[in-house]
Design a protein that fits this description.
By secondary structure, the chain is mainly beta. The protein has 3 helices and 15 strands. The mean pLDDT is 96. It has a 13-stranded mixed beta sheet with strand order 7-8-12-13-14-11-3-6-5-4-2-1-9. A two-stranded antiparallel sheet has the order 10-15. The chain has a single domain, classed as Beta Barrel (Porin). It comes from Acinetobacter chinensis.
């Protein structure tokens, strides 16, 4: 399969709510459990639905907040997207992913009015080296599951807990449909939690994330996602993975993931 999902059906009801059914392919397989979807393609397919949902001129997505309710099982899923706070300058969307009768992921997305603010534009996040001359980074392929096998990774600065890794994939999000840079790059942002683990493999502790928060001060471009990540563990079972997100033109946003730290079985 050359895609992460196959579209089964999409429909819009009288209230403007869009419901889409998909079947995940093996390419979406996660790392913690062979029967789960990785959160990265799950994020991507939700973003693909958001991109198509009642687009409005001069508005774009500024923040996506995804909460993970539990294991995202492989197989058929349904995504229901609706407006929960309408407005002329800001609006809040809700996307709910369900599978086998259970809620899997709930995403709340702010779509915001754009305007010309070039006169005051400025960033504190710095540009980083782009991937063209970086060596291949095999650490990403040490994870189990098919999803990470679909990624190309490069890095020349990575250690336990901190680093910069560039990622790209040639796999489309939906079979038979082209994938936009927004969907392709934002979907891979979940990998911030897997590229700079604080532990040596094999891990004594698991550190799955319960959410993914993405803030975009501009829309991403191109094929490469640069993740400038930091992973931190607290002393009471909770951790945090944070990242500055880059494309080859520079930084475009940030991500955060709260982690639950759990002893691995047999450790």
């Amino acid at each position: 399969m050359s895609a992460y999902y196959q579209l089964i059906h999409r429909e819009t009801d009288d209230q403007g709510c869009v419901t889409a059914r998909y079947h995940s392919t093996l390419n979406a397989q996660g790392a913690w459990n062979p029967n789960e979807q990785h959160m990265a393609p799950a994020t991507g397919i939700i973003c693909a639905e958001l991109e198509q949902f009642s687009p409005r001129e001069n508005m774009r997505i500024g923040r996506i907040s995804l909460d993970i309710y539990g294991l995202i099982e492989l197989g058929e899923i349904e995504i229901r997207t609706r407006v929960i706070r309408a407005g002329k300058t800001i609006e809040l969307l809700e996307s709910t992913m369900q599978g086998k009768g259970k809620t899997l992921v709930v995403a709340h997305t702010w779509r915001m009015l754009t305007s010309d603010t070039s006169a005051i534009a400025g960033l504190e996040d710095s540009e980083v080296e782009t991937p063209e001359n970086m060596p291949v980074f095999d650490g990403v392929h040490q994870w189990r599951g098919q999803y990470t096998k679909t990624l190309e990774a490069r890095s020349n600065q990575q250690r336990n807990g901190k680093g910069l890794v560039w990622l790209r994939t040639e796999v489309d999000m939906v079979e038979g449909q082209s994938t936009s840079p927004f969907v392709r790059l934002v979907s891979m942002s979940d990998m911030a939690n897997g590229i700079v683990p604080r532990q040596e493999r094999p891990f004594d502790w698991g550190f799955p994330n319960l959410d993914l928060q993405i803030h975009l001060y501009r829309m991403p471009e191109g094929e490469w996602l640069g993740i400038e990540a930091v992973q931190q563990y607290g002393s009471d079972g909770i951790g945090l993975s944070s990242a500055i997100l880059h494309d080859v033109n520079g930084p475009f946003g940030r991500s955060e993931q709260i982690l639950t730290l759990r002893p691995m079985s047999g450790s």
